[in-house]
Design goal:
The complex is a heterodimer of chains A (about 120) and B (about 110). By secondary structure, chain A is an all-beta fold. Helix content of chain A is about 0%, strand content about 50%. Chain A has strands at about 5, 10-15, 20, 25, 30-40, 45-50, 55-60, 60-65, 75, 85-95, 105, 110-115. Classes of the chains: A mainly beta (about 120), B mainly beta (about 110).
């Protein structure tokens, strides 16, 4: 089956620190990969995505590279800010059994990031 | 911008009540989804619909049903609410296709007493 494993939190950093949140996956087929962010009290919003091997997704200073050989999609940011405090979810999308329109997202359990001033 | 709206941000219901959660999207997306989010468990898919009147069970469909009579609207129904259905419910929509992302609503926090 399909699954996403991301590092357990919570992660606490000081402002301007370097961030890595690890994400690895297993998938039947060739997935698209996503990072979503959930700010307190809000729904999830897409942070970045990559749809094929070696693609790098980037947005708001965050980036992640689709590594097919290591089945990984680690999220990085060079210098975090207090406003980056949120829960981060790694996810994959792959064609399910039966084909057709059966594209579902499988999420990791989320990593809570807290950035202190 | 894509907008996904949910009928309530907070809802309190009693055990045994029938509960309707409504979700509307304005981007003509084919696919719509209902998730619940619980601490330590992440997001779990309840049901999804890839087109009008089409629905498929997700990972945890027990105790829930759905309705999609119009493309823009996807309803989640709790036939007889129970306390273990207290949770945050998130709706999402997406254009059909593997590489398209899902757009989420703000969520409904449901408490069943």
């Amino acid at each position: 089956g399909n699954s996403v494993t991301q590092m357990e939190g919570p992660v606490t950093l000081s402002e301007e620190a370097f961030l890595t949140i690890n994400c690895t996956y297993t998938a039947t087929g060739y997935p698209s990969l996503f990072w979503y962010v959930q700010y307190p009290g809000e729904g999830l919003q897409l942070l970045l995505k990559a749809t094929k091997a070696d693609d790098k997704g980037s947005n708001k200073g965050f980036e992640a590279t689709y590594r097919k050989e290591t089945t990984s999609f680690h999220l990085e940011k060079g210098s975090v800010q207090v406003s980056d405090s949120a829960v981060y979810f790694c996810a994959l999308s792959v064609l399910g059994l039966g084909g057709g329109s059966n594209y579902k997202l499988t999420f990791g359990k989320g990593t809570l990031l807290t950035v202190n001033p | 911008d894509v907008k996904v709206t949910q009928s309530s941000r907070y809802l309190v219901k009693r055990t045994g009540e029938k509960v309707f959660l409504e979700c509307v999207q304005d981007m003509d997306h084919e696919n719509m989804f209902w998730y619940r989010q619980d601490p330590g468990l992440g997001l779990r898919l309840i049901y999804f619909s890839y087109d009008v009147k089409m629905k498929e069970k997700g990972d945890i469909p027990e105790g829930y049903s759905v309705s999609r009579e119009k493309k823009e609207r996807f309803s989640l129904i709790l036939e007889s609410a129970s306390t273990n259905q207290t949770s945050m419910y998130l709706c999402a929509s997406r254009r059909e296709g593997q590489s398209y992302e899902q757009y989420f609503g703000p969520g409904t926090r449901l408490t069943v007493t």
